[in-house]
Amino acid sequence: xxxxxRAADPSDVQExxxxxxxxxxxxxxxxxxxxxxxxxTVNLVAIHKGTTIAGYISVLVxxxxxxxxxxxxxLRPYLAFVGVLPDLQGQHVGAELIRRALQASDPRGASGMxxxxxxxxxxxxxxxxxxxxxxxxxxxxTGLTPRGxxxxxxxxxxxx
Length: 160
Ligand SMILES: CC(C)(COP(=O)(O)OP(=O)(O)OC[C@H]1O[C@@H](n2cnc3c(N)ncnc32)[C@H](O)[C@@H]1OP(=O)(O)O)[C@@H](O)C(=O)NCCC(=O)NCCS
Prior knowledge:
Number of helices: 5
Protein name: GNAT family N-acetyltransferase
Pfam family, one: Acetyltransf_1
Mean pLDDT: 93
Keywords: Acyltransferase, Transferase
Order of helices and strands: EHEEHEHEHEHE
CATH class: Alpha Beta
Oligomer: single chain
InterPro entries: Acyl_CoA_acyltransferase (IPR016181), Bact_Acetyltransf (IPR050832), GNAT_dom (IPR000182)
Largest sheet: 4 strands, antiparallel
Structural class: alpha+beta
Low-confidence stretches: 156-160
Distance between the termini: 16 Å
Organism: Frateuria flava
Helix content: 25-40%
Bound molecules: coenzyme A
Strand order of the largest sheet: 1-2-3-4
Number of strands: 7
């Protein structure tokens, strides 16, 4: 498949937002593509055939808030969003976005990457190498109780 992954730039915001609407049903309170305009974030796009944004990933690397009320405020790097256009899913674009985002977010392999997700997405994250972290461990590490499954991806090559 003709896919090239590159850093997102401000001209990608509109199309990345459209992609989010295509993969997350209903109204979502936050438009993740706005992160492209924010410091302390890593944003990558997967470009299909040189033109279309087929995938978008956004990772929070700065702006840690140890007193925040959500896990996404207390863990870094934190995977905020990954999505692939429905027609192009199942062709390892998501897995490659995760691999490249981990390299960019944790270049020294020190901390890995964290996320909290709905149960429906857990299978994908496990497939690409994330390891589920128990609620007890998350509570001990952050002081917060996770609302859904919580995962950590260590900085090592992904399988496949
Ligand atoms: C989740 C998502 C990003 C995966 O992207 P993708 O490009 O389709 O995934 P990949 O092709 O890279 O999948 C990698 C592997 O995970 C598997 N996989 C993908 N989605 C899966 C799921 N929901 N459950 C279990 N396994 C899954 C694939 O079959 C593939 O396995 P393989 O290596 O044996 O072939 C994409 O399906 C998507 O955009 N979903 C809607 C948005 C979403 O749920 N985002 C994540 C939560 S915020």
